[in-house]
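PROTEIN–LIGAND DATA SHEET

This sheet pairs a single protein chain with one bound small molecule, flavin mononucleotide, given as SMILES. Inputs appear in the order they were entered. The predicted three-dimensional arrangement of chain and ligand is reported afterwards as a token string under its own label.
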Amino acid sequence: MAKTLVAYFSRCGEQYGVGDITKGNTSIIADIIASKTSADIFEIKVLNDNYPNRYTPLIQFAKQEKQANARPEIVGTVQNFDEYDTVFIGYPNWWGDMPMPVYTFKESYDFSNKKVYTFCTHEGSGGVHKEDFAIYGHTAQNDKIESEKKVDEWLHKLGVL
Ligand SMILES: Cc1cc2nc3c(=O)[nH]c(=O)nc-3n(C[C@H](O)[C@H](O)[C@H](O)COP(=O)(O)O)c2cc1C
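PREDICTION REPORTED AS:
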């Protein structure tokens, strides 16, 4: 049996264009992918989570973390990582890049012989990098039907559905 993992990083709190949210935009897309592909899910969480809850300080914090090329330690590990043949990695676009904890995650495992697909949520500059799939964060947050449709199209294109 093929096994699929969806690993993602996402924030709640104040977020651009959607106000105060209790479930992160990327986490909504991660759930859709996981439910459609019957995947296990792993949230990439930072051990010493000092990310501000407000958008403006978060922007500054993330900028410094990127400038420092930091590798924040993440909570826990994926059990039996070897058993997964497909791994989806999701994150919000932060400063035109992946948040640094996603680098920590990617550098912590051996992805050889696995199919790896990346997805991101963003507010205007998605798809300019190397993601396989990009969607507006506010669409993820506010338009479930459109999000499901876009994810479905993508998964069919990949041939995983
Ligand atoms: C620190 C930070 C930096 C961001 N930088 C960008 C950016 O460069 N381009 C963009 O389109 N959106 C940017 N955004 C918006 C997020 O990508 C977008 O709101 C995303 O959907 C948030 O996902 P989340 O709720 O899963 O954390 C940024 C947001 C934050 C908090």
